[in-house]
């Protein structure tokens, strides 16, 4: 069957759904009913969600969970998390409680500088381009004043603009490299608007620069765009305690645990295959809070993984050490986040989640997110170096398996009792259900 269609975006919502149902489903009415079941009964609220993106047909739900007891710099936070993976919220909450009794998380924002670039091709004498840039630089600020005025009132704006010569890597390639402070907004639209004005100024001023030849005047702007690799927008989160204080139910020998934990982190520092999964665990926590607060988790992910490769080899984002009987575990990560603008002022649940966090500034949110990432990593490494990751994960996952097989309340009781002392896997749960149903 040919599923090609012209003018799909011009169809009404009902027409889009009808076309999809008829094209892809043997029972189109069932498909339409399922799509509509996820609509909000409040028409205005549904319209708000419909307008977040294009060609919307329904809502796609993810669970919103809560991880309490995060003590960060002496203040207690209850953290909202949006994620579909079982055990993540439980692990974060467990780590938060563990460290709340051992001094909590210490976090510091090292910098909040964001980056944007105008990428352009210039064919000519580099010394002339340098002279041109130095003469034109004040105009880049002047001609973006209408864009930066409100941001400057909040203490932000353009920090600096420099000329980068990249011609050794790509012939005739240069860039305007600009740094920004965007305060409590993520600032993507602000930065991109500034960059596009820089590009217009660059081209216009080049055409009237007397020292340029005709070819040199013809600067080709390739693109103007912010970077999600924010190497100067870094936050650090740390936990530490004496080795003896690590003792708990599953850590009877704290010295052995601490040494094994540090070795596990060292392995992730040198072994990329392990480092990817290690950092994925960190991002389980980070992405969940980023999503819950209406921020761009794809940008955060891309920046974090680039940062993990900054010395040319992919490594762990976290570190651990034992010095003079003190166990220390820390994380440094680039996080460009906002608490105003975008979804933060539109999505009702995002606004609710920011209220739960007591309306944090962007800097405070950076610290909360980093602490949750570190908590998640601690929980994963604690499991891996003690009882193994699957025991806790599968206990959380068993409910999904029972739902898949439509288990009754009575069957759930029998399953819970049986798997207290037996290994949990999808096959073993399914087999046990089949057995008791006979």
Strand content: 15-25%
Distance between the termini: 43 Å
Radius of gyration over C-alpha positions, nearest whole angstrom: 27 Å
Number of strands: 10
Helix-strand category: alpha+beta
Biggest sheet features: 4 strands, antiparallel
Question: How would you characterize this protein structure?
Answer:
49% of the residues lie in helices and 18% in strands. It has helices at residues 13-24, 28-37, 43-50, 88-100, 126-142, 145-153, 188-207, 214-217, 254-270, 272-292, 297-308, 348-356, 362-384, 389-404, 409-418, 426-437, and strands at 64-72, 75-82, 106-109, 114-121, 157-165, 173-181, 220-227, 234-242, 318-323, 326-334. The protein has a 4-stranded antiparallel β-sheet. By secondary structure, it is an alpha+beta fold. Helix 5 packs across helix 7 (188-207), helix 10 (272-292) runs antiparallel to helix 11 and helix 10 (272-292) crosses helix 13 (362-384).
